[in-house]
Design goal:
This is 1-(5-phosphoribosyl)-5-amino-4-imidazole-carboxylate carboxylase. InterPro entries: P2CMN_synthase_LarB, PurE_dom. This protein is of the alpha/beta class and 223 residues long. It is built from nine helices and eleven strands. It has a five-stranded parallel sheet with strand order 8-7-9-10-11. A four-stranded mixed sheet has the order 3-4-6-5, sandwiched between helices. The chain has a two-stranded antiparallel sheet with strand order 1-2. Helix 2 packs across helix 3.
Length: 223
């Protein structure tokens, strides 16, 4: 396995070979110059998309000034270079409410950047169950559904009972006091009565998109 030692970071150059995607850069805690150096290294030693997550607008502009031809998705706080061609593997990203939008947008933008076909399904929280039922055909057509919900996290169970495909649940920190900044939704999703739901970390749209990408990778393997 190979890596590039930049002094402040050792960049994994072999991850694309092992997992089908170059190492993804987590932005917080790094300076724009450090991010730019890592991105340049990944671009030089890999062929696939290069992503930097959780980057605010000002440092993103500084990085793009050093490494041009990238794209910044402000709502998702995501930097992308060399996005993958879109494949037929479809991911529906279903958000319970508008307040869950930033997490849903991160999931959608990451999924699109790594080559998945993305459909957004917005504002289908269970407080108005008719809104979800109106979208059930679109959800059933997807290869994976990513469910993004805060409060009590019930949307994951509702979707899990409607579709046959894998469901990846993302608890968000949206909600009032007893929501405990996403812990209530996290536990409710883990305790779902809909069997087989995958649950990722609180507010981790990125984690959900990468779980969907791993599923897509398995389907692409030669048999």
């Amino acid at each position: 396995m190979s890596s590039a030692d930049l002094g402040f970071a050792r960049v994994d150059l072999d991850r694309e070979h092992r997992q089908g995607l170059p190492e993804v850069v987590y932005g917080p805690g790094k300076t724009p110059s450090q991010i730019a150096a890592i991105v340049r290294t990944l671009l030089a030693h890999n062929t696939g998309p290069v992503l930097v997550t959780r980057v605010d607008a000002e440092p993103a502009r500084a990085v793009l000034a050093e490494v041009p031809r990238g794209r910044y998705a402000a709502g998702a706080r995501l930097l992308v270079w060399r996005p993958a061609p879109v494949t037929a593997f479809t991911v529906a990203v279903a958000a319970a409410g508008t307040s869950d939008g930033p997490v849903a947008e991160e999931a959608a933008e990451v999924a699109a950047a790594v080559g998945l076909s993305v459909r957004a399904v917005t504002d289908v929280g269970v407080a108005g169950l008719h809104r979800l039922l109106a979208e059930r055909d679109r959800l059933r057509e997807a290869d994976v559904v990513i469910v993004v919900a805060g409060m009590e996290g019930a949307l994951a169970s509702a979707v899990g009972g409607l579709v046959a495909c894998p469901v990846i649940a993302v608890p968000t920190s949206t909600g009032y006091g007893a929501s405990f900044e996403g812990v209530t939704a996290l536990l409710a999703m883990h305790a779902s009565c809909a069997a087989g739901i995958t649950v990722v970390n609180i507010d981790s749209g990125f984690g959900a998109a990468m779980a969907a990408f791993r599923l897509a990778q398995v389907l692409r393997r030669p048999r």
